[in-house]
Amino acid sequence: MAKILITGASGFVGSWLVREAIDRGLDTYAGIRSTSSKKLLPSEGFQYCVIDFEDPQSLETILKKHQFEYIIHNAGVTRTHQHSIYIKVNVDYSVLLAQLALKTNPNLKKYVYISSIESHGSADQTPDGVIDDRTIPMPRTIYGQSKLRAERALKKIEALPLIIMRPTAVFGPGERDFFMVFDTIKKYRFAPIMGSKKIKYSFIYVKDLARAVLDATLSQYVNKAYFVSDGKIYRISQFTGGIARALNVKTFGFTIPFGVLSAIVAGTTVIDRITGSKSLLNQEQLAKMKALNWDCDISPLVYDLNFQPRYTMDDATAETVQWYQDQGWL
Questions:
Q1: Of 4-13, 194-203, 253-262, which gets the smallest average pLDDT?
Q2: N or C: the chain end with fewer CB closer than 10 Å?
Q3: 11 CB contacts (<8 Å, ≥6 apart)?
Q4: Residue 119 lies in a domain
């Protein structure tokens, strides 16, 4: 039975990667921090592996002991007030893990890096309105810049059997940022439109993402990068409308102009400086919101791995609502 290590396993995407790896019959190790919550992880079928990137020697010892054939590096930081933390966690730790994995196991079959569509930015300025591998990367956020920097650093590591996955907006059971939209619709019957109703969004349901990642991990391919979405484009009203249908409520909605959003962000920026935290609505999020097109090309994923989403938007939204309700979130 092949061994696989999944870092960031206690988080939203990581927990579903663990489930998918277990379902594939892999000897699965969930890489977590000593302080990580285990609430999202399944109750059995895998082993824990405490990872401390601040202690390279202990990390090397773990990798040498287990000889993982596959590593999915999903750990990272998505929101912080310090640029240096983005670089340290998203870039330096990713490179460290890759270098130590190769050093301790020359038979490493695959190192899969979970990047983001944000590494390339939006499709606003592309000739055909679609982001693909020919697109000149223009990240709109510091987070996206750190993901791009990590991709480029990993590509320079000689003999690393690298796969890069660039998911678009991911939603599903256990996700906390989109949950605020679900919660707002349930409590207030309000379906907000941030900035412009003309924005083209792309999404991927977390279960479809997990399946795509494991397909790529276990495939014959190396040195490839894939954008991951369900292959469709949505207006925000289609997404919120699905939530409302799943909740069986009627909603009203209006557009919150970018000027208002900018004023709100000015306030949250002051608060963040005082508290040292990073609000969900911040300068980076505003920069991302101002993009009008997040369409991406998934044809390489379809061609190489025969990827097809198993969930429609409505089915995925309904399942997510049910999970939130079952867990007492809604």
A1: 253-262
A2: N
A3: 40, 74, 75
A4: yes
Q: Is residue 266 part of a domain?
A: no
What distance in Å separates the CA atoms of residue 213 and residue 111, rounded to the nearest whole number?
Answer: 11
State how far the Cα of 40 lies from the Cα of 287, in Å rounded to an integer. Answer: 30
Task: Look at residue 146 and give its three-state secondary structure.
Answer: helix
> Dihedral (C-alpha) 132, 135, 140, 145: value to the nearest 10 degrees?
90
Of 155, 164, 148, nearest to 212 by C-alpha is 164
Whether the CB-CB separation of 295 and 200 falls below 8 Å is answered with: yes
Other beta carbons within 10 angstroms of residue 224's beta carbon come to 16
Q: Convert the pLDDT of each residue in 288-319 to its tens digit.
A: 778 889 999 999 999 999 999 999 999 999 99
Determine, yes or no, domain membership for 329.
Answer: no
pLDDT of residue 302: 98
pLDDT tens per residue across span 163-192: 999 999 999 999 999 999 999 999 999 887
Of residues 39, 82, 1, 25, the one with CA closest to residue 277: 82
Is 41:79 a contact under the CB 8 Å cutoff? no
Q: Which domain holds residue 104?
A: 3-175+201-233+294-320
Into how many domains does the chain fold?
1
With 80 as the cut, is the pLDDT of residue 268 above it?
A: no
Predicted TM-score (pTM) of this structure: 0.94
List, in sequence order, every residue forming a beta bridge with 193; answer none if it has no partner: 255
Residues counted in the chain: 330
CA angle 29, 30, 31 (to 5 degrees): 110
- What's the CA gap between 263 and 86, in Å, rounded? 25
Residue 241 in any domain: the answer is no
Check whether 284 has a pLDDT greater than 90: no
Query: What is the pLDDT at residue 25?
Result: 98
Q: Which tokens belong to 69?
A: 């054939």
Q: What is the CATH number of the domain that holds 106?
A: 3.40.50.720
How does pLDDT run across 122-174, given as a tens digit for each residue? 999 899 999 999 999 999 999 999 999 999 999 999 999 999 999 999 999 99
> Helices 236-247 and 179-188: crossing angle, nearest 10°?
60
